[in-house]
């Protein structure tokens, strides 16, 4: 991989490459597929924001069934660093309940 270009997935977002964990050789860690989510209801973007807010770099890829309407009707793939995959899965499966007094 050319140091100037980085991995293909990082070309659109240079900040992501800076946040992405590096291996002992200084190269970006392998990405692992976390999930497939819908774009229609913005769930994929909400999930990416959640992961980022918890310090887990992530990106979406693909346009499974992309139509002219501008969204992927069959969803997009969400990717995280392989070393953070279990943590990201646990975060998405967490049972979140409001604190006492919160509605």
- Describe the global form: globular
Helix content: 25-40%
Structural class of the secondary structure composition? alpha+beta
Percentage of residues in strands: 15-25%
Number of helices, counting only DSSP H or I runs of 4 residues or more: 3
Compressed to H and E, one letter per element, the order equals HEHEEH
Which residues form runs of ≥5 with pLDDT under 50? Answer: 1-5
User: Would you report the number of β strands?
Assistant: 3
Mind describing the biggest β-sheet?
3 strands, antiparallel
Span between N and C termini? 49 Å
- Average pLDDT for all residues: 79
How many domains comprise the coordinates? 1
CA radius of gyration is 15 Å
Largest sheet, order of strands side by side?
A: 1-3-2
Strand-helix topology:
Blueprint: H1 14-19, E1 31-37, H2 43-53, E2 59-61, E3 76-81, H3 85-93
Description:
The protein has 103 residues and is of the alpha+beta class. It has one domain (8-92). The chain is built from three helices and three strands. The protein has helices at residues 14-19, 43-53, 85-93; strands spanning 31-37, 59-61, 76-81. The protein has a three-stranded antiparallel beta sheet. The chain is globular, with a radius of gyration of 15 Å.
């Amino acid at each position: 991989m050319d140091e100037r270009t980085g991995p293909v997935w990082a070309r659109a977002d240079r900040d992501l490459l800076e946040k992405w964990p590096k291996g002992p050789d200084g190269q970006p860690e392998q990405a692992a597929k976390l999930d497939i989510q819908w774009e229609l209801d913005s769930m994929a973007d909400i999930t990416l924001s959640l992961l980022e807010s918890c310090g887990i770099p992530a990106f979406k890829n693909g346009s499974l069934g992309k139509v002219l309407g501008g969204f992927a009707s069959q969803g997009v793939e969400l990717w995280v660093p392989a070393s953070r995959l279990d943590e990201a899965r646990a975060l998405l499966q967490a049972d979140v309940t409001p604190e006492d007094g919160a509605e």
